[in-house]
């Protein structure tokens, strides 16, 4: 394990870091330093411990928001894959039927396809982000 000296809010810390992970650790240190310095520079909170707690809460809030967004994207991707599979199956079936039967089948499925497309549009619509606001603390 490698030891790195880092600075957060002008205070030095010696941190252990797994080999090859130095860049990730330095990026994390920079993120924490910026979060804490931003809270300090806002002028409402002075105590280093309170600043650290608020910065940790803000980072955790952002992380949870990203997890929710990732889950929503995953669900949308699953719905799109299911739709693509259904369309592929319908096209394969249409190719094996005589033209008149295939046309009748497609006409019959149009309302169902419209319903699926409307649901996909609704699923793909951007949801308002509850994490857009940063946590605020009283002095």
UniProtKB/TrEMBL annotation:
Location relative to the cell: Cytoplasm
Pfam family for this entry, one: ZapA
GO biological process, one term: septin ring assembly
Record's keyword annotation contains Endoplasmic reticulum: no
Gene3D superfamilies the UniProt entry points to: 1.20.5.50, Cell division protein ZapA protomer, N-terminal domain
Keywords for the protein's UniProt record, in alphabetical order: Cell cycle, Cell division, Coiled coil, Cytoplasm, Septation
Coiled-coil annotated spans: 63-97
UniProt-listed InterPro entries: Cell_div_ZapA-like, Cell_div_ZapA-like_sf, Cell_div_ZapA_N
Cellular component GO terms held in the UniProt record: cell division site; cell septum; cytosol
UniProt function note: Activator of cell division through the inhibition of FtsZ GTPase activity, therefore promoting FtsZ assembly into bundles of protofilaments necessary for the formation of the division Z ring. It is recruited early at mid-cell but it is not essential for cell division.
Quaternary state and interactors: Homodimer. Interacts with FtsZ.
UniProt name for this protein: Cell division protein ZapA
